[in-house]
Every structure is written in structure tokens, then in C-alpha cells.
Amino acid sequence: xxxxxxxxxxxxxxxxxxxxxxxxxxxxxxxxxxxxxxxxxxxxxxxxxxxxxxxxxxxxxxxxxxxxxxxxxxxxxxxxxxxxxxxxxxxxxxxxxxxxxxxxxxxxxxxxxxxxxxxxxxxxxxxxxxxxxxxxxxxxxxxxxxxxxxxxxxxxxxxxxxxxxxxxxxxxxxxxxxxxxxxxxxxxxxxxxxxxxxxxxxxxx
Length: 205
Prior knowledge:
- The protein is an all-alpha fold.
- It has 8 helices and no strands.
- It has helices at 2-30, 34-55, 59-83, 107-110, 125-128, 141-179, 188-191, 193-204.
- Helix 1 runs antiparallel to helix 2.
- The longest helix has 39 residues, at 141-179.
- The radius of gyration is 28 Å and the shape is elongated.
- The model is unreliable at 121-131 and 179-194 (pLDDT under 50).
């Protein structure tokens, strides 16, 4: 029962991670945030891999998930520091877009309660395409992104613990299966078969 509940919990957690990751990926695409898009894509692939490994009893895949969970936590800590401007980082920089565009977080313009101001036409075509931050936002976009990352950190930490538990379950099952001769090409009853047959022949003679 504990084995099933542990696997089921991990499967549910991976499903929840996929939902939150896809939600975040959509808003990163809308904001042209190429670095988070790439990281979230890898995260989705690894979560699917961990989900497959859990269902198909592939502990190596779950190990890959556990290792990635630690990397994912580190990445989201960096995102929090970036948007809260910790350690000299600036949320207005083009670091997350690889300096390919002047776009920023989608929540900067479209957050709850934000009123977007259209740029003046006299600024030219290039400036008119630049994103304009909204006014009157109920929550600043930096805090929205930080909350998203905090949720990812929390889920990843729980996922890491569950992954370690699932790996221990799989290891115990493999050891117990090996102990009872599951991987032995010559089980014990084959070993004792020849002496018993010899004793039978001797008694008959």
C-alpha cells in the first residue's frame, strides 16, 4: 500500500508540475523571454521522463528527474533574484531575452489592474514596438514572476523528496526480487534436482 501511495503521489505531483510549467511557458512566449522558454522546455521534458520512469518502473529516469529538480530550484532562485534585483541584477535588462529583443515580462504590461499607455507616434517605428509598462498594476510584474518561481521551487523540493522515495522503493523491490531468485537463471530447485534424482536411483538399485 505504501509503495502504491508513494508512486501515485509522485505521479500526481508530476502532472501538477506539467500544468504549472505549461502555464508559465505560455506567458514566457507572450513576453519573448527566450532563456526561461528554453529552461521550461527542458523542465517539461524531464518531468515527462520522470513520470514515464515512475509508471514503467525505470529508476534511472527518476534519478534524472531528481538531479534536474536541484537544477530547477537553482534556476528559479536566480529568476527571483533577477526580478527582485538582488546582487546587482536588473529586471529591466535584456538578459532573459539573450539581447535579441527589447521585450520584458508579459506581466509588465498586462498584469491585474494595469493600464497600458500607447507610445507616441513621433518616437518612430522601433520605439513604437518597444513594450510600455502599464500603470496602476495591483501587483508589480517583478513580484508576479517571483511568486511563479517560488511556486516552482516549492513543487520541485516536494518532487525531489518524492523522487528519492520512489527510487528507494524501486531499489528495495529489485533487491527483494533478486533475493528470491528472480534474476537467477538456475533457481535453487534446479540445484537440488540432481542429488534427489541420484538418491532415488540408489534406493531403486
